[in-house]
Task: inverse folding
């Protein structure tokens, strides 16, 4: 008589049972799931993760500023452009000296 698939599975399961029982035995060097908390070493895991995330954010900010090219110098360049326009208007006679001085003082403040 030829064994069926169910019979073969039952035989395989009965042979594997001692291995499962052996695998479930506690190891002598295992101290439980919280063995590292008692010594305090697990504190460094979250701290290192925060440091790693902060480092990634700092690198991203540095790259955006470096590739963008518009850091703190953008205000100075816009003031320079405004002053150049003001000088051109004064040279063309569109504004007088008092208005030129007043607007230049406003731009520098």
Result:
């Amino acid at each position: 008589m030829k064994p069926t698939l169910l019979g073969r599975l039952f035989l395989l399961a009965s042979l594997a049972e001692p291995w499962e029982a052996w695998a479930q035995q506690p190891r002598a060097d295992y101290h439980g799931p919280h063995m590292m908390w008692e010594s305090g070493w697990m504190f460094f895991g979250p701290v290192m993760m925060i440091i790693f995330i902060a480092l990634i954010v700092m690198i991203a900010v540095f790259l955006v500023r470096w590739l963008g090219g518009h850091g703190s110098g953008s205000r100075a360049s816009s003031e320079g452009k405004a002053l150049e326009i003001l000088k051109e208007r004064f040279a063309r006679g569109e504004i007088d000296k008092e208005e030129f001085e007043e607007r230049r003082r406003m731009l520098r403040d």
